[in-house]
Design goal:
The complex is a heterotrimer of chains A (132), B (141) and C (374). Chain A is mostly helical and 132 residues long. Chain A has helices at 3-9, 12-52, 72-85, 92-101, 107-116; strands at residues 120-124, 127-130. Chain A is built from five helices and two strands. Classes of the chains: A mainly alpha (132), B alpha+beta (141), C mainly alpha (374). Chains in contact: A-B, A-C, B-C.
């Protein structure tokens, strides 16, 4: 048996409709669950902290623009607030970390541009200073 | 021979890597000694391994007569392993005895699979190096 | 003299027919490509040498061939026919897979589901071409672009097709750099290929540890037939992420997966005996495999474009091509095609998310197909 007749006889149409629906719905549910996972984890962490530690004063949050200007000097100005948080000299991984914590976009590329522009200068092995 | 993460820390390429990232890289990299005159990469052959310089000096000869010398610790050789064209674009010959760190493409892609963020970080850096070297190679034509 | 003649009549030279030579040539080509051209050596060398071993003519009844009970090769092949090797390979894969990019952007999981469309379209095509339902299901799973999953399902449903299906699946996985980029370029505009993805959020260790448990429950409750694959996969992953059994996780992603890969490749290669492999069915399987893989790539991309119609933050549709489960080959291709269009566009991490989702998606499909055919 060949062609459409074979597909119908072997229940192919039903399989080809139900199959992808099951996969799609399964992975959609999984996606929804994991999209909420960090909130759940944060909630548990918060509860655990509340029972063990006294509340900590919240730090001032730094607001970062969504898009960084092309002018590297303007970018450096925005990064200055992060640099103020670090002790000089500092490791680039620390700068990268505070940038990520404060939702600065594309920190790897920006740090690389700052280095190219001579704003971030290597002082010794693994340590950098801010040349502004 | 496998290496320790403290070897990577002073290298410029790894300067912004966190400790656990250095350890992951160290586990994937192998050190290799190179003798003066040894050809470690041959232009046009499939690119399957890339290298970081630990010591020594290496001449990269591109098509035409253009060539450059790489001797700075931590410089990358053989970037075509992870970026097109996947075959070496220059022949690299050791000018003196030295030591390099090497990683094969299969090990590198295993590293990416195991730590996506680290993989992307390395790819970004290699891409930057590749565009610089392409400019040099294009200068020969 | 009689003894000598008898001996000669039992040698491979006497027993060989043209099919043996065709297969020996194919095996030699695989070995050559692996060693001289260094082309996918981890796959092609064991499979190629297996083809050589399996196609040396021998006197039937000596207990030598892979299909003869009690032969050494038959015992090694047991790991294929029972699905043991694919299950072990999945353990290792789980122990080497990082789900952080998927957890950071769960929407991309849908692309892994969409790319499985190739499987279902191929199921219909294979049925229309006259394949029996179990054979059609085994051929269709090639569209998942996952060698171990294809072998696992075929071993359960159509063991006589393991050779051609495994070779087709691995061939298309190796041909990703040739097959996928033209489809990507055909289905996307330059502007779409240049879409930048924002940097994903940082994923906590706890999330990474909880994910394999949730994934196991949800996927395996939905398709219990995928337990042999996804059970070991998520077990491998929790070993990696928990950090309490680093030694076991290291062994799973190195020695264990390597051992399974060696025997899987070798015995699948040896199962391609000329008389079993060189049939018109094999040609159809290869053609259908190509269709399956191409549709899988295309459907992932098209689904991404559909998602963009409804989403505020657009996703790069190239990522859909990484919804097949060929890890990390298809993610790398997506990354490179994106990079070619815009040297500052780094898609690797996002593509890895789709890739990991594709692994889960194709294993669920295998489970569903198996239960449909029960």
């Amino acid at each position: 048996m060949y062609g459409l007749e074979a597909i119908s006889a072997n229940n192919g149409w039903a399989m080809a409709i139900i199959g992808p629906l099951i996969v799609m719905s399964g992975l959609t549910i999984l996606a929804i669950i994991i999209s909420q996972l960090h909130k759940l984890v944060a909630l548990f962490d918060k509860k655990a902290k509340q029972t063990t530690e006294p509340p900590i004063k919240s730090k001032d949050e730094i607001s970062a623009p969504n898009i960084f200007p092309n002018d590297i000097l303007k970018t450096a100005k925005i990064y200055q607030v992060l640099i103020d948080k670090l002790e000089q000299p500092f490791e680039l991984s620390d700068l990268y970390q505070v940038a990520v914590q404060n939702n600065f976009p594309h920190p790897i590329l920006t740090v690389s541009r700052l280095r190219d522009a001579g704003i971030l200068i290597r002082e010794s092995e693994g340590l950098f200073i801010w040349n502004r | 021979m496998s290496i320790d993460s403290h070897i990577l820390k002073p290298l410029d390429f790894f300067v912004d890597f966190k400790q656990h990232e250095l350890e992951t890289c160290a586990a994937a990299l192998k050190s290799r000694t190179v003798a003066a005159g040894e050809v470690i990469i041959e232009r046009g052959t499939p690119a399957l391994t890339f290298f970081f310089i630990l010591s020594g000096a290496y001449e990269v000869a591109f098509e035409g007569d253009r060539s450059i010398i790489l001797e700075q610790k931590g410089e990358v050789m053989g970037w075509s392993t992870v970026i097109r064209p996947f075959h070496y674009t220059g022949t690299i010959t050791a000018q003196k005895d030295g030591e390099v760190l090497e990683i094969s493409s299969s090990d590198f892609f295993e590293l990416i699979q195991g730590d996506n963020a680290l993989g992307e970080k390395i790819m970004k850096k290699i891409n930057k190096i590749a565009s610089e070297r392409r400019t040099i190679a294009a200068g020969s034509q | 003299m009689e003894l000598l003649l008898q001996f000669l009549s039992n040698t491979g030279f006497y027993l060989a027919d043209y099919r043996n030579f065709v297969m020996l040539a194919i095996g030699s080509l695989f070995v050559y490509l692996a060693i001289a051209k260094k082309y996918e050596p981890l796959l092609l060398l064991p499979i190629g040498f297996g083809v050589l071993i399996g196609n040396i003519p021998f006197f039937k009844g000596f207990g030598l061939g892979i299909y003869e009970p009690n032969s050494v090769l038959h015992y090694l092949y047991f790991g294929v026919t029972t699905g043991v090797y694919p299950s072990i390979v999945f353990l290792g894969l789980g122990a080497m897979t990082d789900f952080s990019s998927l957890l950071a952007r769960p929407k991309l999981m849908l692309l892994g589901a969409a790319a499985q469309t190739g499987i279902w379209v191929t199921l219909l095509s294979a049925m229309a071409l006259g394949f029996m339902p179990k054979e059609a299901a085994s051929i269709a799973i090639i569209g998942g672009a996952d060698g171990p999953t294809s072998i696992f399902l075929t071993a359960k449903l159509a063991p006589h097709l393991i050779g051609p299906i495994a070779i087709a699946a691995y061939s298309y996985m190796a041909l990703i750099p040739i097959i996928q980029p033209p489809i990507m370029r055909l289905l996307t505009t330059r502007q779409e290929r240049r879409i930048h993805m924002s940097e994903p959020r940082e994923v906590s260790k706890k999330e990474l540890m909880v994910f394999p448990v949730i994934g196991l429950f949800l996927c395996c409750f939905l398709a219990p037939a995928s337990i042999p694959l996804l059970g070991t996969f998520f077990f491998g992953n929790i070993m990696k992420e928990s950090g309490v059994v680093d030694r076991l996780a290291n062994t799973a992603r190195s020695a264990v997966i390597d051992t399974a890969t060696i025997f899987l490749g070798l015995t699948v290669g040896a199962s391609t005996q000329g008389d079993v492999f060189l049939t018109p069915k094999s040609v159809s399987i290869f053609l259908l495999g190509a269709v399956a893989f191409s549709i899988a790539t295309a459907s992932g991309i098209i689904f991404a474009k559909i998602m963009n119609l409804f989403m505020k933050e657009k996703i790069n549709p190239l990522l859909g091509a990484a919804g097949v489960s060929a890890v990390p080959g298809s993610a790398r291709e997506v990354h490179l095609v994106g990079l070619k269009e815009d040297p500052t566009n780094f898609l690797l991490m996002h593509a890895m998310a789709c890739n990991s989702s594709g692994v889960i998606g194709s294993a669920i499909c295998a489970g569903i197909l198996w239960s449909f055919m029960m």
